[in-house]
Amino acid sequence: MIEPSDLLTPAEAAAASGMAVRAVYRRAAERLPKGVVVRRDGEMFLTTVGAICLRLDRDMPKDVPSSVRRLLYGRMGAHGADRAEVGEGGFRYVVDPKSAAAEVGRFLSDYRKAMELIVEDPGVQGGAATFRGTRLMVHHVADLVAQGTDAAELAEDYPGLTPDMIAAASVYARTHPRRGRPRKPGWRRVSPVSEVRRPRATA
């Protein structure tokens, strides 16, 4: 039986495999074998083997048929690390997933370490993800990193911020993307107090 803790959300699987979330949904429906895609309460999850399959699928030549991909992934074993072969027509397709499995494993290890530093407490910052024991929001730090702010500058602005926290912020942002459009600034939702019309100056 698969435990909930062993399952990955599409965003987590996307980050582990290095592809877009939209691609995860499409490839899960078209190319992945039974057993690696799990549906619970109307939501889709993937096993770790499913993430390994996605990582392989990302780099596989485009001309490999979906039916062959599904057979290959289904023959990689319970841990997704066994070499698999499929013969179709005059072709023989071979895949060795050990490297992909190691990459996914490293990412998931980093992800679990990151999550140990992060909490979502309804009593702190409205439940937004913050670093444990602080009010510093994780997405804010991830945004600063994405904008090119280096670790030294971040440490100067936020003395309690450690290198592990900075690394965790980027991992968390990849696996927990913000939903919806950014909120409009407050001034855009307020009518002006007064309005002055001036004629356009002519040359």
Short note summarizing the structure:
The chain is an alpha+beta fold and 203 residues long. Helices cover 43% and strands 11% of the residues.
Structure report:
The structure is a single chain. It contains eight helices and six strands. It has helices spanning about 10-15, 20-30, 50-60, 65-75, 100-115, 140-145, 150-155, 165-175, and strands at about 35-40, 45, 85-90, 90-95, 120, 130. It folds into two domains: about 5-105, Orthogonal Bundle (Multidrug-efflux Transporter Regulator, Chain: A, Domain 2), CATH 1.10.1660; about 115-175, Arc Repressor Mutant, subunit A, CATH 1.10.10. Helix 1 crosses helix 3, helix 3 (about 50-60) crosses helix 5 (about 100-115) and helix 6 packs across helix 8 (about 165-175). It is α+β, with helices and mostly antiparallel strands. Residues about 180-190 have low confidence and may be disordered. It is globular and about 75 Å long. It is about 45% helix and about 10% strand.
Strand content: 5-15%
Known CATH architecture of the largest domain: Orthogonal Bundle
| CA-atom Rg in angstroms | 23 Å
CATH topology name of the largest domain, in short, is Multidrug-efflux Transporter Regulator, Chain: A, Domain 2
- Count of discrete alpha- or pi-helical segments spanning 4 or more residues: 8
Biggest sheet details: 2 strands, antiparallel
Terminus-to-terminus distance: 79 Å
- Number of separate domains: 2
Molecular shape: globular
Tell me which oligomeric state these chains represent.
single chain
Compute the number of strand runs.
6
H-E string: HHEEHHEEHEEHHH
Structural class: alpha+beta
Low confidence ranges? 181-189
Strand order of the largest sheet: 1-2
> What is the CATH class name of the largest domain?
Mainly Alpha
Q: Give the overall pLDDT as a whole number.
A: 88
